[in-house]
Automatic annotation (TrEMBL):
Residues 90-279 form the ABC transmembrane type-1 domain. It is a multi-pass membrane protein. The keyword Nucleotide-binding does not apply. The lineage of its organism: Bacteria, Bacillati, Actinomycetota, Actinomycetes, Micrococcales. It comes from Microbacterium esteraromaticum. Its main location: membrane. The chain crosses the membrane at residues 31-51, 92-114, 134-164, 211-237, 257-278. This is ABC transporter permease. Belongs to the binding-protein-dependent transport system permease family. One of its GO terms (cellular component) is plasma membrane. It holds the Pfam family BPD_transp_1.
Length: 294
């Protein structure tokens, strides 16, 4: 048996990786930037317990201090380190993505699958409810839900889930309407497969690309919604850190400390931009894999 040159094997593995979805996304500067920022948020969340004390303990000798070696990004209105609070605030960002967007993905996909596949009266009723929710601006609907449930991170996550779910449901339903008439779906029905199995095995896999792109986009929307709620004092409550609440504090002390609002605002901008660029890169990578007509 002929031995394979290790360099050849490594080259083949490299080619195979570049041809995967992740490889194509990483080749795109937008995707590489987006993944890098998401990784930084995850890393910040992982190390955030190390900064809890600095984020909560005020330094009364350095209230609204400018950036310095002792406080790299300065301090807030009661002397807490801004960098430490940005790092601990990354936990909220990850919670929004994991809990709110994750829950909305499951609920929205299920609603869209049922509505698009069943059609008829079921589709009409579900879509009227979805349309009614989409008629409200996202933040207005989130504010209404939080006002009814009360302030706090838990209720903010529920509100964000509620406003993102119909958007995902609408997109999934549109895709299912076109997929349910495909030959393989008709064949599955003809041979008597249960609806649940048809949806999971023959419809849902064809939605994964669309869902990846749209969920990345909705994650940025969810982060902005949480930041807006916290800015208004309806999200996470003190002494816990939230980037939106920090921007609000910065707005109240704008003429006394520029750093208090600027750095958390830049963090929000960076993560939201990264997720939007990642969504674009995912969409491009998926389009590049679509077969072209000869």
């Amino acid at each position: 048996m002929t031995a394979i040159d290790p360099r050849t094997a490594n080259g083949l593995r490299s080619v195979r990786f570049r041809n995967t979805l992740l490889g194509r996304v990483l080749k795109d500067p937008r995707g590489a930037f987006g993944i890098a920022i998401v990784f930084l948020v995850i890393l910040a969340t992982a190390v955030s317990p190390l900064f809890d004390e600095a984020a909560r303990t005020p330094d009364t000798t350095a209230i609204l201090a400018s950036p310095s070696w002792s406080h790299l990004l300065g301090t807030d209105e009661i002397g807490r380190d801004i960098l430490a609070r940005i790092i601990t605030g990354s936990r909220v960002v990850l919670q929004v993505i994991a809990v709110s967007v994750g829950s909305a993905l499951v609920l929205g996909t299920a609603i869209g699958l049922i509505s698009g596949y069943r059609g008829g009266a079921v589709d009409a009723v579900i879509m009227r409810i979805v349309d009614a929710m989409l008629a409200f601006p996202l933040l207005v609907l989130a504010l209404t839900i939080v006002a009814a449930l009360g302030s706090g991170l838990h209720n903010a996550l529920i509100a964000i889930t509620a406003v993102v779910t119909p958007r995902i449901a609408r997109v999934v339903r549109g895709e299912v309407l076109s997929l349910r008439t495909r030959e393989w779906v008709d064949a599955s029905r003809i041979i008597g497969l249960p609806t649940f199995r048809v949806l999971l095995r023959h419809v849902l896999p064809h939605l994964m690309g669309t869902l990846l792109v749209f969920v990345a986009l909705q994650a940025s929307t969810a982060i902005l919604a949480e930041a807006s709620l916290s800015f208004l004092g309806l999200g996470i409550q003190p002494p816990e850190a939230s980037w939106g609440a920090m921007v609000s504090a910065g707005a109240s002390n704008l003429y006394r400390s520029w750093a208090l609002g600027v750095f958390p605002g830049l963090a929000i901008l960076l993560v939201v931009t990264a997720l939007n660029l990642l969504s674009d890169a995912l969409g491009q990578a998926l389009r590049d894999t679509e077969p072209t007509d000869p």
